[in-house]
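Run log, item B.
One chain of 216 residues. Sequence copied directly from the ordering sheet:
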Amino acid sequence: MKKLKFILVGILGAWLIKLLASTIRIDDEPKGFNEKTKTYHAIYAFWHCMMLIPAYVGRNSNIQVLISQHSDGEYITRVIQRLGFGVIRGSTTRGGMRAIKALVDKIREGYPVAITPDGPRGPRFVVQPGSIYLGKKTQLPIIPTAVGLSSYWTLPSWDKFHIPKPFSRALMLYGEPIHIPPNLSDEEMEHYRLLLEQTMISMAERADILVRQKDT
């Protein structure tokens, strides 16, 4: 019975995301980068609360996504698999090193990867060190990514999850690649963790400003 519930949630969730997102005008900056993400070999990092639009933009691309082993993660897994993503289960707290190894293997096979560096349980807008370790281990650039929404609902969850309102506007904003050197001390790792965190916070603010300017 539980397995059937997961299947139904996957089908319905993917359908609802596609239906909602089809009503939203989605722009990107730099222009054309939404399509580039499907082939550009990189680690895409965006905040946990902003995952809905990237899930639509990156559909049917086989981008590999890290999803928590927490029970809630099973529902998310079923939905994004229906949207055409690959899934690796794990997080910085449960199954962490095994998940990182699986991500490294997928990257070496040529797949792009998407992560939410403040997930799965926060703190909100705080980058966990696993994303920096992944960039260091694979020498793949980290692309900080922000999502601006002109109008949205906020869920009462730890991440204040954003659901864009129908017929609103969204902006996918991509930052400059961050390259993590292969040999770093703990202090240098913390420098890059803070760099990614501060970059993503400022980009999220900028994306909200830009998308509202476009909406007026």
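Observations after the first pass:
- The CA atoms of residues 144 and 200 lie 6 Å apart.
- The mean pLDDT is 90.
Flagged for discussion on Thursday.
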